[in-house]
Amino acid sequence: MGNLILCCGLSGSGKTTFCKKFIKEHPDYIHLNVDDFYRTYNGAQVHENEFEVWISYFNAIHSAALREKNVIVDTNALDAIDRAQFVRWFPEFEHHYLYWLWTDCWTAHANNQNRDRVIPEEQWWEMYHSVYTPDLCSDQEWDKIVYIENVKNTGRYKITHPEE
Fold first, then answer.
1. Most buried by CB count within 10 Å: which residue of 24, 53, 130, 131?
2. pTM of the model
3. More confident residue, 85 or 48
4. What percent of the residues of the chain are helix, what percent strand, and what percent coil, each to the nearest 5?
């Protein structure tokens, strides 16, 4: 059985950059980024066909689980309810790990403006205000939670565990 890592956080926090570095060091993992599925259906900027995007994304995760692959999933999942769904929807994985990527607000905001698929300003601020940082009480279905700080876009990531 494979493992599932949910790498989540605010748009512009550095999730995709982290995941790309992660799979270079862990070639036994597949990186599935929801933005790639948006590009397939809509191009970079358009926010249409939500249903098709997410069905394809979830089918790719299920397919990897059935092939017993390790997967690092790259998406926002900003609250405990969104994050918990990944454990419930993908029970086929042996372990479920939650990696919470974060950086300061202004760095994330600037990074969002430089993405291929820019989240519109008003929507980004709504997302920012809806962020609920994972904790062991509200995110207890995960086998492990790891906090990863994108240190001011320096390419360095500071990893801590909530138990510390």
1. 53
2. 0.89
3. 85
4. 40, 20, 40
CATH number of domain containing 127: 3.40.50.300
Q: Is 160 exposed, middle or buried (0-12, 13-18, 19+ CB in 10 A)?
A: exposed
* Alpha helices by DSSP H, 67-104: 80-89
> Average pLDDT, whole number, for the chain?
88
Q: What is the phi/psi pair of residue 156, to 5°?
A: -100, 145
Residue with token string 């990074």: 111
Query: Mean pLDDT over residues 47-58, rounded?
Result: 81
Q: 78: domain range?
A: 3-160
Position 42: which residue type?
N
For the CA atoms of 25, 29, 35, 38, the dihedral, rounded to the nearest 10 degrees, stands at: 150
> In terms of C-beta density within 10 A (0-12 exposed, 13-18 middle, 19 or more buried), how is residue 43 classed?
exposed
Q: Pull the structure tokens for residue 110.
A: 């600037």
Q: How many structural domains is the chain composed of?
A: 1
